[in-house]
Structures are given as C-alpha cells and as structure tokens.
Amino acid sequence: GLDYARQLVARGEHRTAKLILANAELIGRRAVGLAAYIKTELPKEKHTALEAKLVAVSEGVAQMKAAIEDKKSLTAIRKLWLDLRMKSRDLVLSSPDIDFQEVVYATRAISDSGDITWGHTRDKYGPGSDILIKSGLDPTEPTRSLLGDKLGLGHIRGLDLDFDADKVVFSYLKQPKGNGSEEWAHLYEMKIDGTGLRQVTISRNNMDIEPCYLPSGKFAFISDRPNYGSQCAGAFPQDNKYMQLYTCDANGENLRSVSNNKDIDRYPRVMENGSIIFTHWEYQERHLNQTHSLW
C-alpha cells in the first residue's frame, strides 16, 4: 500500500478530495476495460468471481463519492482511495497473463537527481545494492538474495531477465570507497540461482549500463564509449559523457555502436517484433528531469 500512496503523492493528487476522486474514477474505468479483456481469456466458470471483483471496485468508487458528499476528512478519503487500489489489485491479479509466481528485481539507494543526462556519472547513486527474487505476489511473501556481496560494495545500473528466465544480465558499479569511486560500471551475467557469476564487458575508461538480452543471444546496452560530452559544459567539467546504444556478443566481444546521436539514449528493451525500443533525449527545449520520447 505504501507504493500506491507514493504514486499518488508524486503526482500531487493527494492534496484535495477532488483530485483523489478523479484518480479513483480513472481506476474504475480502467477496471471495467481490464475485466472485459480478462473475461475473454478466462473459462466461464471463473466469470462470477471476476465480476465480483469488478463490483468491489465500483463500490469502492461509490463509497468515495459518498464520503466526499458527507464532507468526510481528507484522511478518510485517502484511506478509501488506498482500499480501492487494493481492490483493483485483486482484479489485476485475476488475469491469466500473470502466470508466474516469482519476480526478480534489484534494489539500490535513491538517486540524488532525476537528470537523465547523468547516466555516466559515477556517484549518482550511493553504494548498497542487491538482486532479489520474491516468491509469490503477496507483499508478505519471502525474498531471497542472488547477488549479496559477491561484487563488494557498489550498486546496480540496470537489470534484465533472459527469455528462458534462468539468467540475469546486469550492470554493476563497484564503490569500494563509497560515493565518488574511481571504478567504472561493467556488465555481468549470473544464473537465476545466484551461481555462475561472470563479467561480460570491461573498460578502464567507460561506463556500460542498462543491459538487456537480444533474441540472437547478444546484449544491448547503453555506454559512454563514444567519449563526447554535453553541449552545456562538456565531458570534463561535468564528468558527464553522453550515453549511446551498443550491442555485444554474449562473451562481451564484437562491440558495435548502434546509435550515434548527438544527445542521450537510455533504457533499451526488446519489443515482441524484435525491435529495440529506448528513450532518447534531445538538447532542444527538453527539461532534464522530464519523461522523454520512446524511439
């Protein structure tokens, strides 16, 4: 529930009952559309349970409207909204598309900036990071560590699960001295049971981050290997070299520059048709902290 509350606060929609209700009504509309889709995928004997969950969401929206009409406190309205989010979560988890019971994810310290141009910067995140597997989709279910202290103090700079779900590729920046480390981020791969850790890329002067698997068995990733910097101050004053899209073989060899843009490419992922989708930032009337276009 805490993550749901953070999402509402991040958008500033927690400030008034009107804003909270608008979000609740959006949840209700999405629930109707999602239930219609799930219904086409579920056997008929499960439709009654699905419809009951949709009714629970609709009733949650109605309860919020009634509470606002009765001039209930803002705290009471927020509690009703959080209850509505949990009801909608029950509906989402009814989807047959959610056919897994484990989730792999990474932890790291909070960034000191949302500036997308700081992909290269070594001390954007503080040390302290791990790769974890959560068993079950309930918040109370246990987790287990995969990486632990195998690479020493540092942090994750991107993670992806392979297509057979038996390996992960990730970027790791070692920080043996804490923030401001003179180390560089490299790509690593590890089996999903935590064994077989190996380093994929290495460079004494460049950062390789945000990797993903390609259907060919290669990796796509982001790197500052072009070695040129931002227009506003340049690479050396800012320690801010621009990041571009690269690929390499599974053993780290045959590195290839895929993009050679004037500005920054980040966060590559593979689409179902085999294309790579990524974010791109252009140095034209774009705020550093805003969401950027998909290319």
In a nutshell, what does this entry contain?
With 295 residues, the chain is an alpha+beta fold. The protein contains 5 helices and 14 strands.
Fold and architecture overview:
The protein has 295 residues and is an alpha+beta fold. The chain is built from five helices and 14 strands. It has helices at residues 2-10, 17-41, 47-69, 74-92, 235-238, and strands at 102-108, 129-135, 143-145, 154-161, 167-174, 186-191, 198-199, 208-213, 219-223, 244-248, 256-257, 264-270, 276-281, 293-294. A four-stranded antiparallel β-sheet has the order 4-5-6-7, with no helix packed on it. Strand 8 and strand 9 (219-223) form a beta hairpin. Helix 2 packs parallel to helix 4 and helix 3 packs antiparallel against helix 4 (74-92). The radius of gyration is 22 Å and the shape is globular.
Unreliable residue stretches? none
Helical content, roughly? 25-40%
Helices and strands: which structural class? alpha+beta
Number of distinct beta strands: 14
Strand sequence of the main sheet, in spatial order?
4-5-6-7
- Radius of gyration over alpha carbons? 22 Å
Number of helices: 5
Q: How does the major sheet shape up? A: 4 strands, antiparallel
What is the rounded distance between the termini?
A: 33 Å
**Principal-axes shape call:** globular
Q: What's the rounded overall pLDDT mean?
A: 88
Order of helices and strands: HHHHEEEEEEEEEHEEEEE
Strand % is 25-35%
